[in-house]
Design goal:
The complex is a heterodimer. Chain A is built from 21 helices and 20 strands. Chain A has three domains: about 170 residues, Thiamin diphosphate (ThDP)-binding fold, Pyr/PP domains (Rossmann fold, 3-Layer(aba) Sandwich); about 170 residues, Rossmann fold (3-Layer(aba) Sandwich); about 170 residues, 3-Layer(aba) Sandwich (Rossmann fold), CATH 3.40.50. Helix content of chain A is about 40%, strand content about 15%. Chain B is of the alpha+beta class. Chain B has two domains: about 80 residues, 2-Layer Sandwich (Alpha-Beta Plaits), CATH 3.30.70; about 70 residues, ACT-like. Chain A, domain 2 (Alpha-Beta Plaits, 2-Layer Sandwich), CATH 3.30.70.1150. In chain B, the strands form two sheets. In chain B, strands 5, 6, 7, 8 and 9 form a five-stranded antiparallel beta sheet that branches. In chain B, strands 2-3-1-4 form a four-stranded antiparallel beta sheet, with helices on one face. The two termini of chain B are about 25 Å apart.
Chain lengths: ~575, ~160
């Protein structure tokens, strides 16, 4: 069967099981868009900016467990996509981005809308391809999905010149992928797993520390919870790992790191065994490296060998898929029969942890006649949704309060830009998540600064009748910048205040959605209820919150984890 | 410490940039980098020389392996191996120095590959320290220009570096 490149493109996506593509057309991808129109194999979601296409694909991937797909044109289409690619790369989210390119005969000529897309995106992707010949197109697309979704997942870009889309060749869909240079390890080394089980049973002050690997790997959270409960070990999640264990499980210490809980950071600082699962010892987690878990033996389970011993030396590395290795670990522990962890030592350890917990470090007081506390809004969102909504965030104080106070019941329901810290991520990610889960409640928790970075996506939400909720915590500041300026720059609030904020309610209405402003504590809950009841269009809730509230606890940059500022 | 790493890669467009980009993005240094196709034209073999402590070298190997077109890496420094590089050096030849230049070439077993009325161009193959010594000896005689390849290397013994082994 002879097909054009554009026809091969849609056939391949169909065979990959792609149901949704987030994109924006342009000159170099017109042949592909024409074929999308004719075949109608999948639903194309038209965003309003290419950055949003990538964030939406990211949110979609995280909510659905499938690969997110984006399609952009050459030149500015591709350069606009770079932030979204870099974001998915840092957070290991499986996405494939197709970009149009000028015709092969024009490449290198500074043609209209030409950019060296493969060159520009090389360090923002797990891998990228330039398809120079239509014969390579099907194999390349197959490899792109394979690379994006296996091993440590990540974004892959495929650059397709316009003449490749129109050229014709015999179509063969490769059923299997052969890549001699790419063989991710999935199964942990059995000897290492056995050693890990022994170390865990001997530990007196253990902590399990889990990251985005658990949210990225379907089925691993259940195994993690089982492991934690069977051993009775305390567990803490990174920002990326929230939802890995239910927030109300007695073993859960909350998040660790810069804005982690007192008990989580103290437990890590005093443990004698740290079991890291699908986490990468990010600087926001470890604080000062030489003071991080100084007394601990470290077991590190990760699918990416280069994450192991990169920042913190692991005493026992296990390379493998977290789900496979957790199962191996459960089996290895079961094989030890009635051997259980040292109950006396654990009792003493839990006693100590509960003393730290008693500090109640996330405590805040909300008086009825005072300004709304941002933490209170998050707690109300939790209450009204049963801790079971899909939550996306932008970046800043609201993101940290959401992480600290929302309380996640299940995995794969928390989407935040953890590694890159991209303001403007939350709204498009919420759109992607809502497309993936049309019947669920999806809330973008935002600040008045971040939301303006991709606010045009309200139009996308309207077009597809997505009942996305946007909860803006408006303190009129770039809150996190202001907090750092207050703490480390003697309150010189250099350019972190907005003199000219728009009326967000009017913006919501102008874009065709519902908008509510809340400035009284008593109205927070009822407004959330009202918003949750709206299912036919998007809703923006603007909460006027206290202006100079800070996120605590906080480990100042470069300080040790136990050197927290509590208030 | 100085490490010499052999890297087997897919012989495809952009591989060299990926490797060079990895080193610059992560702040690793490259002392030299040498690349050419292997007997199997679909693969290239690189020899790169870098410096770093154990942890840095371990990361370099892991990061190299993480690149999709990298098939295999081998840190030659961890085993018995040999290294050779080639140098071309152009030296001034005057009445007074002509004989001394040729004598040095003989001592180091370098060959003369080009002669002009005022210069000799010499070619030498050897380990880095031999080449350094050669350059030191020639320096007072007046070096006009020189170019060296940086080392290529392989394991000693019968075993080769290929996809399987």
């Amino acid at each position: 069967m002879k097909l054009t490149g554009a026809e091969i493109f849609v056939e391949c996506l169909k065979r990959e099981g792609v149901e949704h593509v987030f994109g924006y057309p342009g000159g170099a991808v017109l042949p592909i868009y024409d074929e999308i129109f004719k075949k109608n194999y999948f639903r194309h979601v038209l965003v309003r900016h290419e950055q949003a296409a990538l964030h939406a694909a990211n949110g979609y991937a995280r909510a659905s467990g499938k690969c997110g797909v984006a399609l952009v044109t050459s030149g500015p289409g591709a350069t606009n996509a770079v932030t979204g690619l870099a974001d998915s790369y840092m957070d290991s989210i499986p996405t494939v981005c197709f970009s149009g390119q000028v015709a092969t005969s024009l490449i290198g000529n500074d043609a209209f809308q030409e950019a060296d897309t493969v060159g520009i995106t090389r360090s923002a992707t797990k891998h990228n391809f330039l398809v120079k010949n239509v014969e390579e197109l099907a194999t390349t697309i197959r490899q792109a999905f394979h690379v994006a979704t296996t091993g440590r997942p990540g974004p892959v870009l495929v650059d397709i010149p316009k003449d490749v889309s129109t050229a014709i060749c015999e179509f063969h869909y490769p059923e299997t992928v052969e890549m001699r240079s790419y063989h991710p390890v999935t199964k942990g080394h059995p000897g290492q797993v056995k050693k890990a089980a022994t170390m865990m049973l001997k530990a007196k002050r253990p902590v399990i520390y889990t990251g985005g690997g658990i949210n990225g790997c379907r089925g691993s959270a259940e195994l993690l919870t089982r492991l934690v409960r069977s051993l009775g070990f305390p567990v803490t999640n990174t920002l990326m790992g929230l939802g890995g264990v239910p927030y109300d499980d007695e073993h859960f210490l909350g998040m660790l790191g810069m804005h982690g809980t007192y008990e989580a950071n103290m437990a890590v600082s005093h443990c004698d065994l740290l079991v890291a699962v699908g986490a990468r010892f990010d600087d926001r987690v470890t604080g000062k490296l030489d003071a991080f878990a100084p007394e601990a033996k470290i077991i590190h389970i990760d699918v990416d060998p280069s994450s192991i011993s990169k920042n913190v030396r692991a005493h026992l590395p296990i390379v493998g898929d977290v789900k496979v290795v957790l199962q191996q670990l459960l089996d290895a522990l079961a094989a030890k029969g009635d051997k259980a962890p040292n109950p006396e030592a654990l009792k003493v350890w839990w006693h100590q942890i509960n003393e730290w917990r008693a500090k109640d470090c996330l405590h805040f007081e909300q008086k009825d006649d005072e300004p709304i506390k941002p933490q209170y809004v998050i707690r109300q969102l939790h209450e009204k949704t049963g801790g079971d909504a899909l939550i996306t965030t932008e970046v800043g104080q609201h993101q940290m309060w959401a992480a600290q106070h929302y309380g996640f019941r299940r995995p794969h329901r928390w989407m935040t830009s953890g590694g890159l810290g991209t303001m403007g991520y939350g709204l498009p990610a919420a759109i992607g998540a809502q497309i993936a889960m049309p019947d669920e409640t999806v809330i973008d928790i935002a600040g008045e600064a971040s939301i303006q970075m991709n606010i045009q996506e309200l139009a996308t939400a309207l077009q597809y009748k997505l009942p996305v909720k946007v909860a803006i915590l408006n303190n009129t500041f770039m809150g996190m910048v202001r907090q750092w300026q207050e703490m480390f720059y003697e309150s010189r609030y250099s350019h972190s205040y907005f003199d000219s904020l728009p009326d967000f309610v009017k913006i919501a209405e102008a874009y065709g959605g519902a908008g509510f402003r809340v400035d009284k504590v008593a109205d927070v809950g009822p407004t959330i209820e009202k918003a949750l009841a709206i299912r036919d269009r998007f809703v923006v809730m603007e909460f006027m919150v206290s202006k100079e509230e800070n996120v605590y606890p906080m480990v100042p940059s470069g300080a040790a984890l136990h050197e927290m500022v509590l208030s | 410490m100085r490490h010499t790493i052999s890297v087997l890669v897919e012989n495809e467009f952009g591989v060299l940039t990926r490797i060079a980009g990895l080193f610059s993005a992560r702040g690793y240094n490259i002392e030299s980098l040498n690349v050419a196709p292997t007997l199997d034209p679909t693969m290239s073999r690189m020899t790169l020389v870098t410096r770093g402590d154990e942890q840095v070298i371990e990361q370099i190997e892991k990061q190299l392996n993480k690149l999709i077109p990298v098939i295999k890496t081998e840190d030659l420094t961890r085993q018995s191996h040999m290294e050779r590089e080639i140098i071309l050096v152009k030296v001034k030849a005057t009445e007074k120095t002509r004989a001394e230049v040729l004598r040095m070439a003989e001592v180091f077993r370098a060959s003369v590959v080009d002669v002009s009325e005022t210069s000799y161009t010499l070619e030498l193959t050897g380990k880095a320290d031999k080449i350094d010594a050669f350059l030191r000896m020639l320096d007072p005689l007046g070096i006009i220009e020189m170019t060296r390849t940086g080392p290529v290397g392989m394991r000693r013994g019968a075993q080769g570096m290929n996809i399987e082994g």
